[in-house]
Amino acid sequence: MSEVLIAGKSVSVNEEGYLTDPSQWNREIAEQIAAEVNITLTPKHWEVLEYLREKQQAGEMLNIRKIGKSGIVDIKEFYQLFPGGPLKNASKIAGIPKPASCI
Amino acid sequence: MKKLLILGAGTAGTMMLNKLRHRLDKKEWEITIVENDPNHYYQPGFLFVPFGIYNKTEIVKPKADFFPNHIHAVWDEVVKIEPENNQVLLKNNDPLAYDVLLIATGCTPDPAETPGLQGELWEKDIFTFYTYEGSCALHDKLENWEGGKLVINIVDMPIKCPPAPLEFTFLAEAFFTNKGMRDKVDITFVTPMSGPFTKPVASKMLSGLLAERNIHSVHDFYIEKVDEANKKIVSYDEKEVPFDLLITIPTNKGAAMVAASGLDEGDDLNFAVTDKHTLQSKQFENIFVIGDATNLPASKAGSVAHFEGEVLTENILEFIAGKPLTHQFDGHSNCFIETGYGQASVIDFNYEVQPLPGKFPVPGIGPLSLLGISRINHWGKLAFKWAYWNMLLKGIPFPISTNMSMAGKEEEAATEA
Predict the structure, then answer these.
(1) Is residue A102 flagged as an active site residue?
(2) Domain containing B86 — which CATH number?
(3) Mutate: best of A76, A87, A98, A103, partner B, most B CBs <10 A
(4) pLDDT in tens, B280-299
């Protein structure tokens, strides 16, 4: 774990760059992490990020399948919004821990 | 008489039936188990049947042979649990009332979840070894297969026995080498995860082994469909992997009646929402869940069901006595990983601690090497079949502690990975 400066704010992140305390997150931080993976956040992105934060806070397990059934995006759109590893990237931008959906 | 009802007589249900019958007063508690399939399959054997290491008859026995005396068995299908009425509806029999309910209905692969899997190529060029029938059909296919592109694909997580797809891959590589046709087979392991295994130190070791055996590895591949005409698997982000022979590990789902009873998470995977430490349902205090049927962030494996069983027996007894549940499951999992050529590795981990190198079960001595590859580990895996039929199902304790122990493990390996 280490302290880094993102969008002018000091936050703690783990070795993979995930925020370890979701309460340190804000929209500017999200925009900067997104920029690092070449994503410009649109309203649709924000809807997904808010959904992820809400579910994480409720203690629910997150996986791609569940996001595909969220009513916000289907799995294909989720991949288009966050290319590569959508759940990994979206979680990092949302300031929540990397989902442990892979057991 | 009070009634304890167990749904499912697989590994977890049968083991709990034996443990609870032994511990509950026969004058006070009636125990009933509901099951639809009369055959008990030794599921770890599904991995070996395709390669002729086990034959298909030695991994099936009648379930009833493992039931203790003084219990009732109802051979029927569960339609729905009605938790508000403390009763279970069955397909062909009258509803069964309960004071305490234990759900042990496991999980099964569902190839229908992925378009094109169960189409015209099913059991011609697309197989799964995750069922008894599939494993036997694949054995017949491999006997005469002349080679080409062999692709092993995990559709989604979680799956039963997470190391099995990799073990299959290693065993296949050795099988074709021993047949003298390895040069005719191109092997690719395709997974939705970011590496060959779920935990970092083990993943690093296994990814090295794949490279050493000249097996291609494609990760972060989340399959959308099979392109049947062109024999390719296609991911949601439009990556493609061509195959001649596809071994699929389909989406694993819990029993549909779990969702029909409103006990799941609502993601249509049908896993029952369970407290990860006490194994009690999060919705109803007189319902408990064990094994593959739970939504716990632990492996879906027989060893996990075994360690859960030790905790759950005590918690059910405490619940019945009106006491708080004091026994906690730590996520302990322990599995052999076959690596081919008569050798295997062993991993031991829990919710918090990933698999690490070391010696097991006696710290510093072994004889099994954690994360190492040895012949004795492979013998351990083969010997387990005897222990499964003769000890585990009958609820006889194993000489391995229920909570994972750090003794004998090399902690520094975690920081190096």
Answers:
(1) yes
(2) 3.50.50.60
(3) A103
(4) 999 999 999 999 999 998 99
